[in-house]
Amino acid sequence: RKEVEQDPGPFNVPEGATVAFNCTYSNSASQSFFWYRQDCRKEPKLLMSVYSSGNEDGRFTAQLNRASQYISLLIRDSKLSDSATYLCVVRTGTASKLTFGTGTRLQVTL
Amino acid sequence: DGGITQSPKYLFRKEGQNVTLSCEQNLNHDAMYWYRQDPGQGLRLIYYSQIVNDFQKGDIAEGYSVSREKKESFPLTVTSAQKNPTAFYLCAVSSGPGGPTDTQYFGPGTRLTVL
Questions:
Q1: Which of A30, A43, A52, B26 could bridge to B106 as Cys pair (CB 3.0-4.6 Å)?
Q2: What is the pLDDT of residue B2?
């Protein structure tokens, strides 16, 4: 089983739609969770950290369910500029080592 | 991130040659990391360093070497022993192990192609 699993997609949605991505992780000792965004042939950029109580940043909402070892990202009112690959990232241990999912690709269309 | 530079952006090398990728940061962060990314795979950790003059192997260190002589710099050498070196190489930095806000920021990457 992979340490971090994501549906690769692609998710094709019209502009204005709401879309949700899910991610599961295998190590129950994982401590910190993040969503990164990666545009084609570019470096990953931090989108948001994921906190236990859930958190929101504008149109983006992240949720964490430690019991089910599950993380989600909800994007409301999708924009064309949201088209990218979204990486689920988990930190386990004390050395700031991160484990990356393979990413979920989102394509927002007119 | 603007404070992390990687050079060159594209690199071509012949089989059997060693090549060194540069990573420099002006963020005054302690920890630096090297990853490689292959199509359809997540980023995989090659080496990391939490402090000057110290570094540890990541998950796929074979065929690679690093040094950390200065806080600002963490060069990666891809040796001829690396069987499949063609990949997108990403350098990252973080303020170091700590609380839940410790996150990693990436440089723009180097695309290495072995001919």
A1: A43
A2: 56
